[in-house]
Every structure is written in structure tokens, then in C-alpha cells.
Amino acid sequence: MPPRTLFEQAEADHLRQAQPLAARMRPTTLDEFAGQQHFLGEGKLLRRLLTADRLGSVLFYGPPGTGKTTLARLLATESHRRFRQLSAVTSGVKDLREVLTDARDELATGGRRTLLFIDEIHRFNKAQQDALLPDVEEGVVTLVGATTANPFFAVNSALVSRSQIFQFEPLSPADIKTLLRRAAADTARGLGRHQVRLHDDALDFLAEVCDGDARRALMALEIGVLSSGQRPVEFTRQLAEESVQRKAVSYDATGDAHYDTISALIKSIRGSDPDAALYWLALMLEAGEDVRFLCRRLIILASEDIGNADPQALPLAVAAMQACEFIGLPECQLTLSQAVTYLACAPKSNAATTAIGEARRDVREGRVLPVPVALRDAHYAGADRLGHGKEYQYAHDAEGGVAAQDYLGVDREYYRPVERGFEAELARRLAVVRQTLRRGKEA
Question: What pTM was computed for the model?
Fold first, then answer.
């Protein structure tokens, strides 16, 4: 590339200064890249693919601000490929075919291979994703697709099977602080000319509140510095707080966040941690989750994970559902909080869940047992001629209210109460009852 004229250089400088800080501070080498060391560190898979020059198509999956676009650009530089970018939100099949044709022509004339970065690739419809397959398979382009949605659900299985999937994690507070310090000190691309003095508590605050999103942290830093009338800039905790917009909860009610968060809520209640359960409940409420969905899941949990260890759990969950339906938000958050904390603190048992699972499996996989003659309906003319109900023993007439009767025809036990909560009492009762019932089987 020929050297720039003074006019071209000045124009480039103006354009760069117009960019937000996060764009100006994008790393230019892999060594500057922060985070994702679980697949980019020395000896990890993506680094090995680059070293061996065997970079194929990849899918980057993770939350915003974790470096997906930046890393795609760096991969093109490191692998000596041309970089081409499309947005699945604004590009159609025509745009895609133009890029693919250009990549094929470039390769046919002895030029460089092309790395095609498609942002929000899950927004492409099936036809658009299918259009990629031939050129991906033939190696005409190295596809790097970025998505915030789980690719196993949002991307065609044919494309997924031809790609390496790398899951991006939110940046750690230490990584965020490193990026903020670098941006504050850099005089060429960053804010160094403003003489920024970063206070430790301000750094701690931004590193925590940005949720691992580098772009959000750098935006807050830039707003605070440029809006301050002081020089040098004392970037205090107060200035940091005033420079951060109210947190918008990233939450797709039909995507991963929905399923992952309800999974975290249920597992926290099952694990008897009311504090964790309240946090996940709060997150879902702040994100606008459907209250009916939350109530349904709590009712299911009351039977699935508590059962007879606390027989009050189910009626309480049902009452919570009815109360939420009656009063609505915001007041029903109190009802949900009460229900969640009660269920989390209740003794746990999955004995009823396991029992019905085993019984249904026996019905599906084995010969269906005939109803014992003594238990068959005897309330019709002619039943006595068949012997139906003839040897039935009325339980209320037996000592202790339990008759020595065979109710199944075979010796099976499905319900095994645990030694927790009220179910421990049921276990003791059941042990005595089953002794009586066995006498009926032996008769």
C-alpha cells in the first residue's frame, strides 16, 4: 500500500477521533487481546489452529462486548487473509453471494483467501445459511460467525457440524481493569492526552458494574473523562457512577438467558440456597419474565423436589400462583419472594418423582399387570358370578385401618421416602404398613 498523503493522513486521524473509545482501543495483535484464554491461550485449540495454519470455519458464541468482532479481525491478520464483514441484520442473500463470488475470484487469480465475518449469524434465515455451505466446504472462505444465541439452537445443524464452536465468557474484573488503564494512558488512541488519574475504587466499580462487557466499561470511562471540566481528570467513584447508564438486563425470553436463568433458579431452590434463588428470581423479574411461567415452575418444583418431605410446599406454591394472578406486578414480587424462600428452605425429597418414573417405566417396558380379582368392580349385576370383589377386605374394618390385602399381584416397591422432614414420619408409618400388606401377598 502506497504511503498516505498528508491530506489522507489527516482525514484518517479525524475519522479515528470520531470513533468511540472502544473502537479506537481495539487490540492490533493477539497479545493485546484480553480474555478468552480458555481457547486462545498458549497451547489451546484456537491458538493451535492458527499456529498450524489450519483455521477453518468457526462460530463465536457469547455475550456482547467480549471481543467476538475484534478477534475475528485479528484472526484475519494472523492468518494473512482478507477480512470481509457482513451483518446478518442488514445483509441479504444478494450481498452474501457478492462477497462469496469476490472471494472465489480472488482465490482463482492467485490472491489471498478470505475470512468472512458474519455478525449475528443466527439472524440469517435457513436459505441464507444454506447459501454459505458450498463455499465453506470447499474452503473458498473461512467463515467466522458471531452470535449471542446458542448456535446449537439458532444455526443450521449443517453449518454447526462444519464449524468449531468457541464460547466467549464475560471478561473478568482484572481484564476490564487492564483495558481501562491502557485506554486512560494511551495518548495516540486512548485518553492519555487528558491526563486521567484513575482512582482504584472507580476501577473496581466499573469492573463490577459492566458485567464483563468491555465496550460498556470503556464507554463509561470516555463519558466521564470528556464530560469532566477538570484537567488533569480525577476519575473518582462518583464520576464513574455518574457516567454509567442504568443497567439494561440482557435477556431473551425465548433464548438461552431464559432457559439458563430458570435452570439456575430451580437448581438454587433444590440446593436449599434462598439467597441465590432470590438473585435469579430478581434477575428474571427485572428482565420482564412472565410471572405465570415462574409460578408454573415453582408448582412443579414443589412436587418434584420437595414432595412429602413438606406437604405444605405444594399448596403454598399453588396459593402463590393464585395470589400473583390476583394482584399482579409489582406487588406480587413479594408473594414470589415468600414462595421461593420457603421452597428453598423446605426439606427436600424427590421420592415421589422417582416413584412415578419407575412405575411408568414398568408399565411401558413390561407386561401390563391384570387388576387382582378382589379389587375389580363389583357394582354391577353379574359381577358376583365372575367372583369380582369377592375377597376384598374393607380397610376401615381392619386393625389399624390397614388390611392384609394384595393390591398389585406382584411384590414391587416404588415409593421410598427419605429421612427428611415429614417424609421421615411417612417412612416409619410405611414400614409398618408394608409388613401388613406382605401378609396379604403371602396368603
Answer: 0.62
* Residue that has been written with the C-alpha cell 408394608 in this structure: 434
β-pair partners for 141:
114
Quick one: pLDDT at residue 254? 57
pLDDT of residue 1: 46
**What pLDDT band is residue 281 in, cutting at 50, 70 and 90?**
very high
Q: Cell digits for 425?
A: 414420619
Contacting residues for 19 by C-beta, under 8 A, at least 6 apart: none
pLDDT digits (tens, 9 = 90+) for 86-113: 988 888 888 888 999 999 999 888 889 9
CA distances from 391 to 378, 384, 400, 401 (A): 11, 11, 19, 17
Which of 231, 174, 176 has the alpha carbon at shortest distance from 25? 176
DSSP state letters, 284-329? HHHTT--HHHHHHHHHHHIIIIIGGGSTTHHHHHHHHHHHHHHH-T
Cβ neighbour number for residue 5 with a 10 Å cutoff: 9
For residue 87, which phi and psi values (nearest 5 degrees)? -105, 125
Placement of cell 419472594 in the chain: 337
Q: Is 77 helix (H, G, I), strand (E, B) or coil?
A: helix
C-alpha cell at 250: 440482557
Rounded Cα distance, 22 and 221, in Å: 10
| pLDDT mean across residues, the chain | 87
Which residues, including other chains, have CB under 8 Å from residue 22's CB and lie 6 or more apart? Answer: 214, 215, 218, 219
CA distance 364 to 346: 33
Nearest to residue 21, comparing CAs of 211, 221, 155? 221
pLDDT of 367-403, one tens digit each?
A: 788 888 888 888 777 777 788 888 888 889 888 898 8
